[in-house]
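User: Good morning. I'm curious how zinc ion would be positioned relative to this chain. Could you predict the structure with it bound?
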Amino acid sequence: MSYVKGLKCRECSRTYPKEPLYVCEYCFGPLEVDYDYEKIGKVLTREMIESRPHNLWRYRELMPLDGEPVVGLHTGFTPFFRARNLEKVLGVEELYIKDDSVNHPTLSFKDRVVAVAISKAREFGFSTVACASTGNLANSVAAQAALANLRRFIFIPADLEMGKVIGTLIYHPTLIAVDGNYDQVNRLCSEVAARYNWAFVNINIRPYYAEGSKTYAYEIAEQLGWKPPRHIVVPVAGGSLISKIHKGLKEFEKLGLIGRVDTKIYAAQATGCCPIITAIKDHSGIVKPVKPDTIAKSLAIGNPADGVYAVGTVAETGGWGEDVSDEEIVAAIKLLAATEGIFTETAGGVTLAAAKKLIEMGRIPRDESIVICITGNGLKTQEAVAKRIGEAVRIKPTIDSFEEHVKK
Ligand SMILES: *Cc1c(COP(=O)(O)O)cnc(C)c1O
Ligand SMILES: [Zn+2]
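Assistant: Good morning! Here's the predicted structure, ligand included:
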């Protein structure tokens, strides 16, 4: 049973059939999945969702598949918890972490979008999937396409972290490392996509793929006891996740699963690549492309596809945005590890550092509920912190050597 009516242009609202289409023929706006909410509202209840397995398909009525999913049966429903040590350090009363650094199978929030994209690609009958990636998408497409028995072509910038490269190659894709930045990789992929009949998860499958991000917000609301938080801080690359978090909360509100949504949504980027934060701060609504230069490579998209929607989400919800230096990113990675015992990648450092700034500036009040989105795992970006965390104490295998070297 599917509740998908078709695709709809985000700009002019023209409708399209459920096909691998992504851009409006009339106005070149992006297409989005259109659901029959009236029908969904008649069947979907909190109890029904709670009775289902702990994976992202527990919200299946709000996902764009017609048939059964072929991957993602262990993806989603990641930990969500009160961060009491961090609350003390930041001086806030109610802070939560939504932790996709332990998402299945490749340890980032991208496993959600890819579970949907790969299932949809199989439904459409594609035998080959592909993507342009800043790293985490590469890992997840390679892994989940392997599980779904699909051929896989992955395009990345040649200077990615070793953890992201090995974490892709292990699944035996054709991995193409392009001499250029992500925006150049993406442009190349658009040309490849026009010539080959492949399912590009972030090009012709993008409308379906993007829906997977909504489950991150559904889980926050469900795990908070079926209510929305007052503030959410979100890392931003192409701008898809942040706008889908908003869409997810509004859908739950519309379906009566939660009360009124008055959540303010905040964007976080690295100063070395912050076209969206710049647009938020100068109130122009125009996202000017930049050339990325930051250790937060997973967020290093200089020309974000959903940039205007990300800026729109922040403006509509009354949130804000902040950018942080590479120094601040490393400090925040270390702070999260030392307080909450979580090793996040550079993107998580961006989010926590930006949240800290927004709290200190008074943009986020200290006495209201705040959720920080941790979206990736630190084991993949070890070079960012390797030289900044001290060293092991090297000793001989004797008690004398131990007592000589170790301060007690
Ligand atoms: C891709 C990614 C994001 C943000 O993605 P959008 O392109 O803005 O949807 C955030 N965190 C991590 C770790 C990512 O890999
Ligand atoms: Zn249109």
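The mean pLDDT is 97. The pocket of zinc ion (ligand 2) is lined by residues 9, 11-12, 14, 24, 26-27, 29 (CB under 6 Å).
Let me know if you'd like a different ligand tried.
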